[in-house]
Design goal:
Elements lengths: L23 E3 L3 H11 L7 H21 L2 E7 L10 E7 L5 E7 L3 H14 L5 E12 L5 E10 L8 E5 L2 E2 L3 H13 L6 E9 L1 H10 L4 E7 L6 H4 L26 H6 L4
Parallel strand pairs: 1-10, 4-5, 4-7, 7-9, 8-9, 9-10
Antiparallel strand pairs: 2-3, 5-6
Helix pairs in contact: 1-2, 2-3
Length: 271
């Protein structure tokens, strides 16, 4: 008789309390916050930064897999089966037939997407996994503030029907780039995804407002919320309680406390 212990796994994502809505998941993970603090610290450069980014995205994708992906019952004989007929694992596993498309938004998103792509290939059937590429950049105004985002090129390898469409992009600052990227998939790529999931190291209240307003169907996962420019009395409230007064972006649309230019440091390309 099989052991029924693992037939229904009660996985719960550790999250901080907030008022941004049910599709926003702000993790409460001391280990990931420690690694992210090191990643953002002044003086953290290559090769440490890429190792940390890959580690953080491997852990973040595990959370998404556990929380979002379908499961199926399996019976897997172990190597003990020859000596013990009970040597069969019975329980829930992530369904390997699940379809995934992960999108590399160059350039800071290249390593995160590659990390997710590799782990997805190890967890699911590789023929169900694809990686797309979008070249995107911020457009700056006369005062060097961010005024929008544009796509300079893309390699999209097919439809997204019934797929988990993943956007592993380190910094959710204004939401402008992802708004354009998500719109591209919704209106120019064939098929309807099963779910769209944005995966970030850091997000701001401004980014969350953009996503929940323009794409209320999108799930957002982030390791940290940065709202460091908010008034002290606002910082004393549960995040999202006084959302209109929360601020995580400076006048040039960069995150505070943030982590500086991830793309520049990750690529040793300061342009």
């Amino acid at each position: 008789m099989p052991d029924h212990l693992y037939e229904k796994i009660p996985y719960r994502t550790p999250e901080i309390e907030h008022r941004y809505g049910p599709n926003v998941h702000l993790l409460a993970d001391p280990f990931l916050l420690t690694q992210l603090a090191t990643l953002c610290a002044k003086g953290t450069v290559q090769p440490t930064i890429n190792r940390l980014v890959a580690q953080l995205y491997g852990e973040l994708f595990k959370v998404v897999l556990n929380n979002e992906f379908p499961r199926r019952m399996v019976n897997v004989p172990t190597r003990m089966i020859e000596s013990a007929p009970q040597a069969v694992f019975h329980g829930e596993n992530i369904d390997p037939t699940t379809r995934v498309v992960t999108v590399n938004i160059a350039r800071a998103g290249a390593l995160p997407s590659q990390t997710v792509y590799d782990l997805a290939n190890m967890t699911l059937q590789p023929e169900q996994v694809r990686q797309d590429h979008i070249i995107m950049s911020r457009m700056l105004g006369d005062g060097q503030q961010v005024v929008g985002s544009g796509i300079g090129g893309a390699k999209i390898g097919g439809d997204v029907h019934d797929a988990f469409l993943l956007f592993p992009d380190p910094m959710g600052a204004t939401g402008g780039s992802l708004d354009v990227a998500i719109d591209t998939y919704k209106h120019k790529v064939e098929g309807t995804p099963r779910r769209i999931v944005n995966m970030h190291l850091i997000v701001t209240p401004e980014y969350l407002k953009t996503m929940t307003t323009k794409h209320p169907d999108v799930m957002v996962y982030a390791i940290r919320l940065d709202r460091g420019l908010s008034p002290a009395e606002v910082l004393a409230t549960v995040p999202g309680t006084r959302w209109a007064e929360e601020r995580g972006l400076d006048d040039h649309q960069y995150i505070v406390p943030g982590g500086g230019g991830f793309g520049e440091i990750m690529n040793n390309a300061y342009v």
